[in-house]
Amino acid sequence: MDSSAELSSLLATLEDVTVRVTHLVESSESKDGVDAELVQLERSLTGSLRKLRRALKSAQQS
To answer: Which of 40, 43, 45, 58 is deepest in the core (most CB within 10 A)?
Structure first.
């Protein structure tokens, strides 16, 4: 598998995980103490998505 295809696959998976975490953050079902951890995780995932998108764009231009 070439790097663009691999990065694209990773991006799709990370997007799915980010959506799931965001739903947990937005739900009222989260327990106290877990909320802060989930918000921090969501921020990290969002940052990782930006980096992965940039990497994919670079790989596609190569």
So the answer is: 45
What residues make up the domain containing 21?
Answer: 3-61
The structure's pTM equals 0.83
Query: Residue 30 burial by CB count (10 A; 0-12/13-18/19+): exposed, middle or buried?
Result: middle
Q: Name 22's Cβ contacts closer than 8 Å, sequence gap at least 6.
A: 42
pLDDT at 31 over 70: no
Tell me how far apart the alpha carbons of residues 28 and 16 are, in angstroms, rounded to a whole number: 20
Task: Specify whether the CB–CB gap between 49 and 7 falls below 8 A.
Answer: no
